[in-house]
């Protein structure tokens, strides 16, 4: 129903869809604004009778500051919350595998996920979440999601992030996970990083990968296979204002005020209407996991060896997109992958 150009949600909606909308709204708010909210809460508490909680919590986070670079400390209880089940079903998120896909439980893998989107949904809900089909198919693997240090440093959001299996995306953190001698560890990494969020537009696939080679070097040092992963539909969740002048301002704010998080200007939907708001749109996400690229362990890889493996990875990434766009995208012949 439309009123004054605003499309409202039907009054009679199944309760499970209400739960799903609430779950995705809470998820987006916490991970987009939870850090800032946590800081404001701490600032407020300093001027109350509970002021002592702030230095106590600050002491705890200082003593625990290296945990995100040494595997984190996931919490099974939090990972089993039904919140993540409703989050997955909201879009919904599904997983698909390339032909011949298989994993060796004695090895560690680096899953390189594209695109980043405004706030990546596919890699977590399709692969890392306890409620995902991937975790049920490969229960012998422990999956961690590598993110900006911002999410493992700021109050409140830090504890939730660590609980669901998040680790730092630093070289030290990745090396710790990929060098685990027992094997059976998977790291979800977004090589495009926050910069790729600027490219998130409905129906557009532009990956930041041409000059991202640190993850390749890390894979070579540990002999960890690289796995290309593409989440089709990830960029359809929000519309975004794309303007050159605005981009310069966004980059300045990102570097000096937002701790690396891109201050994108986006538009989604609301609780009771579909025309505007900050809730992601209910669009299907299909995460496709490609065939692992074999990597030979080299403690000190040369630039030539890094370039060679990087080229091989990019070729596999493009091939994966070209193969599965016919299955998951409308008008696939008009859809082309751009590399930046």
- Which structural class do you get from the secondary structure elements? alpha/beta
Strand order of the largest sheet: 3-12-9-4-7-5-6
Compressed to H and E, one letter per element, the order equals EEHHHHEEHHEHEHEEHEEHEEHE
Q: What is the number of helical segments per DSSP (H or I, 4+ residues)?
A: 11
Q: Estimate what percentage of residues fall within beta strands.
A: 5-15%
Mean pLDDT across every amino acid position: 90
- Rounded to an integer, what's the Rg over CA atoms? 20 Å
Are there runs of 5+ residues with pLDDT below 50, and where?
A: none
Shape: globular
Q: Percentage of helical residues? A: 25-40%
Structure summary, number of beta strands: 13
CA distance, first residue to last residue:
41 Å
The biggest beta sheet is recorded as: 7 strands, mixed
Compact summary:
The protein has 340 residues and is an alpha/beta fold. The strands form four sheets. A seven-stranded mixed β-sheet has the order 3-12-9-4-7-5-6, with helices on both faces. Strands 1-2 form a two-stranded antiparallel sheet. A two-stranded parallel sheet has the order 8-13.
Summary keywords:
two-stranded antiparallel ribbon; 11 helices; seven-stranded mixed sheet; 14% strand; 340 residues; alpha/beta
